[in-house]
Amino acid sequence: MLSSKGDGQAAVPVVNMRRNRMARCRQAAWLLYHVGIDASVLLFADEVDMDGLIMNQRVSLLVVGQDVLKSKAEVSSVCTILTNTYCEYAYSLLQSLDIKKLLLAGILLDTSNLSKKCTNRDSEAVQLLLFGASERMRHELFQQLMLDHNDHSFVEYLKNTYRSSTTDDNDESPPEQKRSTSASGSSQDAKKSNSTNQRTTRGSGRKTADEASRGKNNFFLAKWFGFGRK
């Protein structure tokens, strides 16, 4: 996102997902945690009034993603293209060990440690990022990324940083509303069953005791399973 500021512009990266979704992307979340990036200062899509900024013409968008940058299948990882871009236009950024580790991790995950759908450009980017380090570092980093990362400190970090929720993002109803709706539905079913039982009782006064007993059993099942005679 490029935000206008006076006569110039300020580039502001925005993660294109809701913050609480990040807790499910454990590899990426662990990587930020591992290199010491304060994820609380990152901007996520649900934290930016993008519609308002666009309407006021205060922002222009630059979309950077796998589908946008990989048009000819020349690479398997978007981090390969970012590495090449940094080499050409901002080589000083690659002097940061943390940035190199972030880029390297992205390539290793996308190519399964250079063993799946790996291109020559991916391999060359990895060699560049590993310059001055041993090949062993690549394997160690990949093994770390593939761990479950269930240690207590990291789990607490996820909860505190990304406000993880136990509810599914596709279901916007809060748990209280779900329980209320369910209880209301059960109450309506019970009322229908009681009404059915009353009609059955009034209409079967001349039946034998055995038939009445069978009718009672039917109502008992209808009450618990939520259906009755129509």
From TrEMBL:
One of its GO terms (cellular component) is cytoplasm. It comes from the Eukaryota. Residues 180-203 have a biased composition (Polar residues). This is Uncharacterized protein. Signal peptide: none annotated. GO terms for molecular function: exopolyphosphatase activity. InterPro entries: DHH_sf. Residues 164-214 are annotated as: Disordered.
